[in-house]
Amino acid sequence: MTEPSNAPAGRSTDDRYKWTALTNTTAAVFMSALDGSIVLIALPAIFRGIHLDPLAPGNIAYLLWMIMGYRLVQAVLVVTVGRLGDMYGRVKIYNSGFAVFTFASILLSFDPFDGGHGAMWLIGWRLLQAVGGSMLTANSAAILTDAFPKEQRGFALGINQVAALAGMFIGLVAGGLLSAWDWRAVFWVNVPVGVFFTVWAYRTLRETAKGGGGRIDWWGNITFAVGLSSVLIAVTFGLQPYHGHTMGWTNPLVDGLIAGGLILLAAFVVIENRVSAPMIQLSLFRLRAFTFGNLAGLAISIGRGGMQFVLIIWLQGIWLPLHGYDYSDTPLWAGIFMLPLTAGFLAAGPVSGYLSDRFGSRGLATSGAVLFGGSFLGLMVLPIDFSYWIFALLIALNGIASGMFASPNSSSIMGSVPARLRGVASGMRATFQNSGTAVSIGVFFSLMIAGLASSLPHSLTSGLQQQGVPAHVADHVGGLPPVSSLFAAQLGVNPVEHLLQPTGTLSHLTAAQQQTLTGREFFPSLIAGPFHSGLVIVFAFGATLAFLAAIASLLRGTNTRPAKAGEPTNPATSRAPQEKHTP
What's the Cα-to-Cα distance from 114 to each of 47, 66, 111, 172, 393, rounded to whole Å? Predict the structure, then answer.
C-alpha cells in the first residue's frame, strides 16, 4: 500500500481530491453519529406514534434496544468491515455502507405496525442501519489518512472526529424538532442526504492505495462478534428488574451471557495469534501510541456516553419541570440546553487537530482528559436546582475537553500504524469508542439506579400518602422499579399521573391534591434527593475514568508528532508490526 503521490504534476489533483474525501467522509460520520442519538430524544414521539406504553414492564426492553442496538452492532462490526476495506478497497466498502444506511433509513420511515411489532420493526431496521454506519465509520479515517499528507492528517481527522461528536449532540436537538412535527421525520431526514452523498461518493472517491487481498478469518469474526454481543446484550438485561430486584445483575441469564462472552473473547485472542490472516492485527498493540491511545479513548468514551444520558435525564426529569416546562416539551428543551456541549466540540476539535500537527498529540490529548475530569468534578458539586449559566459553563468546558482530546488522540493512533493496516486500525479504534459508548449506558445507569434504590421507594410512598393517596396504592406506585422512573423522566412522562389514573384514585382526591400530583413539580421534587445521591456516584466515576485516560495518554510516548520530510523517526514508536506468514 502506497501513500498518495506528492509529485508536483499531480499536486493540484491530489489537493482537490483530499478536500472531496474530507467533505464526503465528514458528512458520513456526522450522519452515522446523528442517528445514534436522534432516536434518543425522539423516543417519546416514537412510543406515542406506535402506541406503546413506555412504563409497561415488558416495554423497557424495547426502549433499551432502540438506544443500545445501534451501538452494539457498530461495536461488533467495525473491525470486520475495516479489515474488508483493507482487503478489497476502502472506498468500495465505504460506498456500499452509504447505500445500506440510506436503504435502511427509508424502511424505518415506513413502519406499518403498532405496539410491540412496530417496535421490533424499528429495532430490526435500526440494526441494518448500524451495519451501514459501521461500513462508513470504519473506513472514513483510513480514507482520510490515505488522502492527506502527514502534516495535515491531524487537522483532517480532527474535522472528522468533531463531526462525529457534534452529530451525537446535534441529534438531540434535531430529534426534538423533527419529532414535534412527525416522529417518522427523524428517519426521513436521512433519505435525501443519504441519496445525494451516496451518488457523490460513487462518482468522486477513488482508491488511493492498492488493496491487500487475503481472506476472511471466519473463526475470529464469529468468536469476536458473538462474544462481544453476548456481553453487551447482558448489559441490557442487567438494567431490567428481576424477581423483585431493582436490576437484573443477579439473573442467571445475565451471568451466563457475560461468562460465555468473555470465554469467546478469550478464544478470539487465541485464534488471532494462530491464524495466518487474522481479523485484527494484535501486533498493533506493540505500538505504544496505538495501545495507550485506544485505552485512553475507551475511558473517555465510557465517561462521555454515560454523561450524555445522565444530563438528559437530569434536565428532562427534574430541572426543566421545576422551571415551568411541560413534560411534553422537556425533550426538545433538554436538547437545546445541551447546546453549549456541542459548541465546545465544534470550537476545540479543529483547532486541536491543527495544533497536534504542529506540536504533537500527547500534551493536547492529556490536557483534554484532565479538563474532562475537572468538568465532572464541577458537575458533581452542582446542586440539583442549579443556575443555568454555571451548568452551561461546565458542559461547555466538557465539550472543549472532548474536542481537545479526540482529534490529537485519533491522529496519534492512525499515524502510528503502517499504511497497509490503516483500515483495520480505524476499525479497532472505532470498536473501542463504540464499545465504550454502549457499555457506558449500562455502567452509568447501574450506578444511578443503585443510588436511587435505597431512598426513592420511601420518598414516593410517603409523598403520595401525604397527598391523600391510599396506602396500598402508594405502596404499589412506590414499588415502581427505579429504572422505570429514570426512563419516565427521559421520555417526558409524569409517572405518578400515568400510574394513578388507571386506579381511579385521582377522582377521589381534592382538586388541590389532584393538581399537586399531576403538576410539574411533585415528581421532580420527590426524586431530586435520591437522584442527587446517584449523580455524585456517577460523576465521581466519570472523573476517575478521565484521570485514568490522562495517565494512559501520557504513556503513549513522546514522538507523537508526525515526522516531517527528511526528519528521522523514533524506531521505538514507528516500527511497523510484521504480518504473519504460514510456513
Answer: 9, 15, 8, 24, 42
- Determine the distance from the C-alpha atom of residue 471 to the mean position of all C-alpha atoms in its chain, rounded to a whole number: 42
CA pair distance 131, 96, nearest whole angstrom:
10
DSSP structure class, residue 569: P
How far is 255 from 238, CA to CA, in rounded Å?
A: 9
- As averages over each run of 10 residues, the pLDDT of the chain (583 residues) reads 42 75 91 83 81 74 82 82 82 92 91 89 94 89 83 75 76 78 87 88 82 73 88 83 80 93 93 82 88 93 86 85 81 82 81 79 91 95 93 94 87 82 74 82 80 80 88 81 72 74 82 84 82 88 95 78 40 40 37
Q: Which residue has the cell 424477581?
A: 243
Distance CA 49, CA 161 (A): 33
Those residues whose C-beta lies under 8 Å from the C-beta of residue 144, and which sit 6 or more positions away, are 18, 21, 22, 25, 153, 156, 157, 160
Strand partners, 245: 242
**Which grid cell sits at 268?**
478470539
Q: How far apart are CA 41 and CA 47, in angstroms?
A: 11
Scan for cell 474532562, then name that residue: 372
DSSP 249: T
Count Cα atoms within 13 angstroms, Cβ side, for 194. 25
Distance CA 472, CA 474 (A): 5
For helices 60-88 and 218-238, give the axis angle rounded to 10 degrees: 160
What separation in angstroms does the CA of 362 have from each of 65, 110, 358, 576?
37, 47, 12, 20
Per 3-state DSSP, the chain is made up of helix, strand and coil in percentages (nearest 5) of 80, 0, 20
242, β-bridge pairs = 245
Residue 491 CA from chain centroid, whole number: 19
Q: How far apart are CA 501 and CA 117, in angstroms?
A: 26
Residues 137, 94 contacting (CB under 8 angstroms): no
Buried b or exposed e, range 143-154, using 16+ CB within 10 angstroms = bbbbbbebebbb
Rounded to 5 degrees, what angle do the CA atoms 81, 580, 211 make?
40
Write the DSSP assignment of 206-229 as a string of letters.
Answer: ---S--------HHHHHHHHHHHH
In 3D space, the residue among 395, 406, 402, 351 whose CA is nearest the CA of residue 161 turns out to be 406
Q: How far apart are CA 67 and CA 88, in angstroms?
A: 32
DSSP H helices, 89-181, are 90-108, 115-147, 150-181
